[in-house]
Target: Zinc finger BED domain-containing protein 1-like
Amino acid sequence: MRDNERGRLRRRQQQRRKSTQRMRRTKRSAVWSHFTLVNDNDAKCTICGSILKYNKSTTSLNYHLSTSHSAVLQTASGTQPTIAMALGRRVCDSTKAEGITQRICNMVTTDMLPINVVEGQGFQELIKYVEPGYNIPSRTTITTRLEASYAKKKTELRTQLATANVALTTDCWTSLTTESYITVTCHYIEPDWRVKSAVLLTESITVRHTADNLADKLNQAVETWGLTGRVVACVHDNAWNIVSANSPTRVNWHSVPCFAHTLQLAINDGFATYINRVIIAASRLVQHFNHSSLANIALKAKQQQMQLPSHKLIQSCKTRWNSVSEMFNRLTEQRWAVSAVLSDRTVTKLSDARTLELRDEYWQLMEDVAPVLETLKCATTVMSGETEVSVSDTYPITFSLINVHLKTDEEDTSKVGEFKSRVCTSLSERMKIASDDLMSTPPMIATMLDPKHKHLGFLTPPRMVTAHAKLLEVLAETEAEAECKSATSADAIGGQQELVGGRAVPVQAAGLQRRSAYALLMGENYTTRSTNDVEKEVDSFLKDPPPLLDSSPTTWWKVNEGRFPRLANLARKYLAIPGTSVPSERVFSAAGLTVNRLRTRLTPDHVDLLIFLNKNR
Model:
């Protein structure tokens, strides 16, 4: 018995020695920085506490670290080899690595982030956690890739614009570092009648924003992109410098005021009445709730108690007139909850309540003026579309507002009637409704080329006749210009000259003179027949039944282009003009404000590149 006990004791001692030796050998592996040996067969992860089987090999332990705790495999020092390297970390394959790099570039342009985002510690930790085997590219690498994308996209866009007639919009803005920029965007209609827009350039303005300097920037942009002679109009706001910059003495295109800005100015004129007192009082009330956590909590409680929607109050903003409408609507919705909070002395002091509480007549005016403001908001939204034609709606909507929605009636209170009257008068003056030149404006020509508006039912009969005569005149002039260009293009050999009448003239001028001589030889009958063809096409177009009111003019022209080829070319030219200088999400939405904030934080090094790639995706 004693011999057996001694034998068992000896065997236990030998096993302990072997286990100790094995543990010493095992601990040499870097994996034991994150594991402790529980017994001969199990090891415990010191990070998550998991128990893993250990069978004299660290393979399973390595796998656990690489899949569950890859973030800990990088070291604080960039000079020391990481544990992942010591463990033979799986390297990210080239296809996946290329995909990640491309998506990083997309992230930078989509969210308009500074390129040095790839150098941020948080970004690098994220990538290492998601894909430990991926080598994060440097700022220089990302810049090189973006510049290549920029060059490629510019070439593609230049090809698309090679023969297109375009309209321009401009946007002057200031970065957080108080640097001024101008962004120029073009709008055009493709051969398949899709409405497209593209940012041409963004340049810093280091000089005063005078009309001459702004005109120079616009002309340079047009020349750089090879658009000389193919710009129909520039849509801009009503600031005096940009209006003057687009005058005929400085540029070779039409000046079109932005409808959204014009309507906003007219509405602001209407606000400069008794309504302004209501706006000030309502803004003060909303500001109190937005700055008092106690009042805000009490408002939520009252909303639940009264079974009202759990909506926050909306503060008006001077640069977004529709926010006044939103503020009025929200206050009207939450009137009794707001009044209950102001009446609660545990929440609102009596002195504050007396200052904040709105008069009954203020509440009534907010309710009465709401339908008018909603109609004006609807008009702005319709006119601010970026992918649908809107310029042809300019005057139909303007006349509808003036003759219908802003016309006072017996049901209007005196305050609402005064607001309508002021807005109506201001809008009529700003849109130059009574001007003799109204029929010659690009928006009116576009209206006549929109099949649903072509009969101009909003005009008086004499003005209808004048407008249709103007359309015929513009079409005839366009046809003559096209024929002259066609005649001279065959003769145009850059810079060469010909002898005409014994003197040397440029080939292009010689072509024009030959064209004039040809027309003279053919006589009046030839000219008359050509004019008659134009008149017949216009007459046939006007007699054709109009489509439904909600139809798209470009969809209609895509189907009927073959029936009215001359008018189709003119429509492609004038319907490309946007109704406003800003797309719809920039007019009203919070998303538009977010875009502005993202844009203003860019560094000046790559502003043009990033905005170009962001907008021309």
Q: What stands out?
A: Residues 74-88, 498-512, 587-595 have pLDDT under 50 and may be disordered.
